[in-house]
Fold:
Amino acid sequence: MELLRKAAVEPEVDFLREAPRVLTRDLMEAEFEVHLGAERAERGPERTGQRNGYRDRPWDMRVDSIAPRVPRVRDGSYFPAPREPRTRAERAPVAVIHEAHVQGVSTRRVDAVVQALGMSGISTSQVRRFCQELNAVITQFRTRRLSGPYPYVELDATFVKARHEGRAVSVAVVIAIGVRQSGEREVLGFDVGPSEDGAFWLSFLRGLVARGLDGVQRAISDAHQGLKAAIAAVLARASWQRCRVHFVCNALVLVAKGMQALVASTIRTVFAQPDAATAREQWRRVAGGVRVKWPRLAALMDGAEEDVLAYLDFPPAHWRQIGSTNPLERLTKEVTRRGDVVGVFPSDEAVIRLVGAIVSEQHDEWQAGRRSFRAESLAKLVPPPFSDPAPPLLAAS
Structure:
């Protein structure tokens, strides 16, 4: 009633902003008396503790930021029920901040979003502190035990900007996805490093193997030399498949811009053939057709035939899916898109937080969606002997 009277006679008193503070104060006092087993200054056998003053704790709410005085007990055993322990805000604003960060929204824009919720704004340091809560989930996802075997593994990298010693530099984000024997895709892992060199790929793949990656029969990637060497060193039993989409992009660099669409369509006719023999014959026919006008393109095709058409050694039902890294390419493009919105990340840890949220979200979608491969067709793959790194053959049906 006191608050209502003040609101009626004092225009500067905002009832909607003051009401939560008054309500919270009175609720905490009532709850605190129950917690102690006695009212203020009351002595009795049921009293379980002693008052120890108050502490001011800011509380960000949808209507505003308030600072109720929280009663203290000497043994520290009281925490008010209106707020969850060790949280500074209601779930709704925090969820908005987390989602905005995952979507690549800058901290300045997050501040505008928070103000639109009716709060008094939030600082850059507060946004980062809230986003730190994502770290535990991301770390658990990155370090989880892998449960293979994974017959097919795809590897790719992209680049974002991060700040190092006051300078904005490009950092490599490497991602690996795999197909389990049961047919589902999953994100195996990701990492952030200074560059996409062979040493970084080697360390990344060794980390995957240490976490349980095994049974790999086909590793699919672009023709990055460091990555190829790392695959050969760590995944000795796996054969390598050169991504045909990346190959076509490499090939188009060697022809005039006005002819690129025609050349791309011509090369893609190879991948539409119904059987291995016809596909290899068409490849050589296309290479022969461009030899006079574009000799460098013909030479590229001659040298890449076995690597690009390696998928033909596997079940025809898998050809469309294992000939390229398209599922992973879409994921890396999403990482790049959201990274472009951020611009320059303040640190590698911020990159890991954002990328981890994106890839774990995709991982969950793959687990809940349709299987990418039929388990029956994957069962036809014969694992090669340990001493023979040659591509696996189809099991006898």
